[in-house]
Write a structure and sequence with these properties.
Elements: E1 2-7, E2 10-13, E3 18-26, E4 31-39, E5 46-51, E6 58-59, E7 67-71, E8 76-81, E9 90-98, E10 103-106, E11 110-115
Parallel strand pairs: 2-11
Antiparallel strand pairs: 1-3, 3-8, 4-5, 4-9, 5-6, 7-8, 9-10, 9-11
Amino acid sequence: QVQLVESGGGLVQAGGSLRLSCVATGSIFSINTLGWYRQAPGKQRELVAVFPNIGSPNYSDSVKGRFTISRDNAKTVYLQMNSLKPEDTAVYYCYANWGRWNDNSWGQGTQVTVSS
């Protein structure tokens, strides 16, 4: 099992910055993919940025050049969000795919609100 806990959301004006953090616990060495999704009101959950098992991070086109995902060890991942826009307002979820059977875990979510 992998458990995820996010922190760092909040209210910010357009053009501002926020940094989200996610700490994974449990079977962290079985993690294949680790990253961030978001869900805005009335919309489907969408990928923001993830570290795949192999290779460079993947970003949504809507955040490329503004958001940066980073990882400082096997269990902690960050999302630095710059030049925030009102359309970035959403609940942001930490996500992990893990184990040989590709199980998925989600954090509880953290609200990011960008005012215009």
